[in-house]
Specification:
An 8-stranded mixed beta sheet has the order 1-9-8-5-4-2-3-14, sandwiched between helices. Strands 10-12-15-13 form a 4-stranded antiparallel beta sheet. The chain has a 3-stranded antiparallel beta sheet with strand order 7-6-11, with no helix packed on it. It is α/β, with parallel strands linked by helices. It has 12 helices and 15 strands.
């Protein structure tokens, strides 16, 4: 072992020692300690990875990114994984890939329609709009918060070319019906799997059903790299386009720090460029720079080792809340898994029923007052959001449930950092609120 190797080993050992001193566990105090809706669960392995990558002084993609791409593809069960800087960028890359001339007559063109749901996160829909495509919005179901399958079938028209949908809050949409529709009508399918890493449908991991799938590694998700995302695909043709779009739109596939992988760097003839124009500077797509850094990938590798435990904890925490709040169904629509699925839960969604003696704002204010964090179901009915006021779109049927979600739905956390003590406090707080409302109603009637 060289002197540098010995010093590296000492630095990495000190990193783990530092974490123990700098980030001690703190006891939970009900009403004082926060109960976050989501958050990162990191420790010595992640800090060690950060130091290990930093000591390489390789500040862009490198060996850690290469390993994470290989392991992610193997973990999910696809051939190709392409890291990028966020789940939103992953969605942009996936949809933009469908516009590539390399797809021949199947490529999407401006004005083509893409079916999606009205109630969701903006960056599932934004790449559709930004590529000049027309989103076709369908309503969702209460409880699962995924697309209504009858509306999905109705939405397919003569210009429909793709379906782009998310597995809402980690609950898989009806992949049996969706994939059958995609095959029947020769549609591309993009699975926004950002909230659902580790979920299964018919025993098979989500992210493996679509032509393309996306992941997010923001701290709220099943694993984190801080900022980060990934595009998954089984098809090499699509993968090459994803990689080109992510890496400035270039035609060259050389990794950073490498050159002439093809063996004919100065022999290509593409477009109207002179023969022999340096292949490293030939661009076949209008692309971006959306790459992940090696330090982020090093954190991702540590997180990937812990992913099975994280998914199991999310399921257990979701069940803890489902059991504890089951007696409140008079007032709330409680979440339920999609048939044939094993969700990798992102959150626990509740919808205040129309006849409840309180509003969503009232229950949220009560919970937040007890330091229990809440979130709305993202953008609610996106057609009501200011950003989409002038966006060309089509709506199939009504959006009644999406409007109910906008008015009455919220969710609380199930992420692995929540303890049983915290979850008991959440359940107790819901019951305290409902009892308080009932008590006020009884007093006012006297």
């Amino acid at each position: 072992m060289s002197a540098a190797d010995e010093l590296r080993a000492r630095v990495l050992a000190l990193a783990e020692e530092y974490h123990a001193e700098a980030f001690p566990e703190r006891p939970f105090v009900a009403g004082v300690s926060p109960v976050p809706v989501s958050g990162k669960v990191v420790g010595p392995p992640e800090l060690r990875g950060l130091f290990d990558a930093a000591l390489d002084l390789w500040l862009t993609e490198g060996r850690f990114a290469d390993e994470l791409e290989e392991r992610l593809a193997a973990t999910v069960g696809v051939r190709h994984a392409y890291l990028c800087n966020s789940g939103s960028s992953a969605n942009l890359l996936a949809v933009s890939t469908l516009m590539s001339p390399r797809l021949g007559p199947r490529r999407l063109r401006p004005g083509d329609e893409v079916v999606t749901v009205a109630a969701g996160f903006p960056t599932t829909v934004n790449p559709i709009v930004l590529n000049g495509l027309v989103p076709v919005f369908v309503d969702v179901e209460l409880g699962t918060y995924d697309a209504r399958m009858d509306r999905l079938a109705e939405a397919i028209g003569p210009r429909t070319r793709a379906i782009v949908m998310a597995h809402t809050l980690g609950n898989p949409f009806d992949l049996g019906t969706v994939t059958a529709l995609a095959r029947e009508h020769e549609l591309f399918l993009v699975e926004d799997n950002c909230d659902a890493l580790g979920a299964r449908y018919d025993g098979r991991l989500t992210g493996t059903f679509g032509d393309l799938a996306t992941l997010s590694f923001y701290p709220a998700h099943q694993m984190t790299t801080g900022e980060g995302g990934c595009v998954l695909t089984e098809r090499g043709t699509l993968g090459k386009v994803v990689e080109s779009l992510r890496d400035w739109g270039r035609d060259c596939w050389c990794a950073p720090g490498m050159e002439n992988t093809c063996g004919k760097r100065f022999e290509w003839q593409l477009g109207d460029l002179p023969c022999g124009y340096d292949h490293k500077y030939v661009y076949t797509h209008v692309g971006y720079n959306l790459k992940l850094t090696d330090s982020q990938a090093a954190v991702g590798l540590a997180q990937l080792d812990r992913l099975p435990g994280f998914v199991a904890a999310r399921r257990a925490n979701w069940q803890h809340l489902a059991d504890g709040l089951a007696d409140l169904e008079e007032h709330f629509v409680l979440p339920r898994p999609t048939p044939r699925s094993e969700p990798s839960w992102f959150g626990f969604a509740l919808t205040v029923r129309p006849g409840a003696p309180f509003t969503r704002n009232e229950i949220i204010e009560f919970l937040e007052g007890r330091r229990i964090a809440t979130r709305l179901l993202f953008g609610g009915n996106l057609t009501r959001q200011p950003a989409y006021a002038e966006v060309e779109h089509r709506v199939v049927g009504d959006l009644t449930t999406s409007d109910v979600i906008t008015e009455s739905t919220f969710w609380v956390g199930v992420y692995p950092g929540l303890t049983g003590e915290m979850l008991d406090y959440v359940v107790e707080s819901f019951h305290d609120f409902v009892r308080g409302v009932a008590g006020r109603a009884a007093a006012s009637s006297r």
